Amino acid sequence: MDESHVNSLTYKLITNSHMEYTKEAFVEFDTEEFYLSMNNGLLICEMKKHYSQVQDARNIVEILLKTWEIDVALKHGLGELDFLFLSADVVYSDKNNMGSIAFSTKGELSAEMTIVRGAYPTIPSDFIASPDAELLWTRYKMYMQGRDQLLSMAYFCLSYIEGLAGGRGHASNKFGINRDDLDSLGELTSARGDKLTARKGVRNNFVPLTDEDTLWVESFVKLLIRRIGEHAAESSIATD
Predict the structure, then answer these.
(1) Where are the alpha helices (DSSP H) in 113-210?
(2) What pLDDT shows up at residue 19?
(3) Residue 156 scores a pLDDT above 60
(4) H-helix or E-strand containing 69?
(5) What b/e readout covers 197-225, taking b as 16+ CB neighbours within 10 angstroms?
(6) What are the distances in angstroms from CA 119 to CA 44, 60, 113, 127?
């Protein structure tokens, strides 16, 4: 059997229908595993280490891409930066069989762009899309897409973080999150909401969230996700 080596991976930048990046926008990033560069909406990752399977190489690269996507979405909202895998260039030891393996994408996006950015967002160095951060982000994203209720999503995030640390007080200390704010989120997610959004309906005494409450909960949940990712980055540095 011929020995294969994944030489590079190519991704397409996907944005929402109201923004784009200029053709001059460029970013590059170097890691021990690969060198990344993006220009004109195409991102290419040149692998430094040996990977014989495309999926193994993708698993390494897409940790960084997911980190980048979540970091930008937490700062600017959904749709600013997402990536679609296009193809892999795989080199074989048998020169007669050298070539690339392409993977087709599912559809193209057509859009009317209204916001133009002259530079790509910075790749974060103080945030990692750890499994915990990615899980919390997935729940928040579901809420933003209308597939989850705000209070149930926020309660899940709060209880999950408490579970990671062994309680609310420990979560405050471990992740550097204000205890009073955690208590406020606990109160809002337990006692507030209307007939369709409240988590509890024991006394039929519904107190809907105000617009200000809603904005605060959304902002604080994003802060929770960021702190989980920042803690993962801090822990990674400490173990290097």
Answers:
(1) 131-144, 150-165, 168-175, 179-191
(2) 83
(3) yes
(4) helix 54-76
(5) ebeeeeeeeeeebeeebbebbbebbbebb
(6) 17, 25, 16, 20
- Above 70 in pLDDT, residue 130? yes
Whether the predicted pLDDT of 105 surpasses 80: no
- Residue 177: phi and psi, rounded to 5, are -115, 135
By residue count, the chain amounts to 240
Amino acid at 23: K
Q: Report whether 56 contacts 31 (CB < 8 A).
A: no
Ranges assigned E (strand) in 54-172:
82-92, 101-102, 115-117
| Phi, then psi, of 166 in degrees rounded to 5 | 90, 30
Q: What is the mean pLDDT of the chain?
A: 88
pTM over 0.70: yes
Report the alpha-carbon distance of residue 183 to residue 47 in Å, rounded: 46
Q: Which two tokens stand for residue 30?
A: 């170097």
Q: Confidence band (pLDDT; 50, 70, 90) for 102?
A: very low
pLDDT of residue 115: 66
Q: Which of 80, 91, 109, 76 is nearest to 3 (CA)?
A: 91
Q: Which residues contact 213 (CB under 8 A, 6 or more apart)?
A: 188, 192
d(CA 151, CA 17): 29
CB distance 58 to 85 below 8 Å: yes
- Quickly list DSSP for 184-233: HHHHHHHH-B-TTT-S--SS---BPPPHHHHHHHHHHHHHHHHHHHHHHH
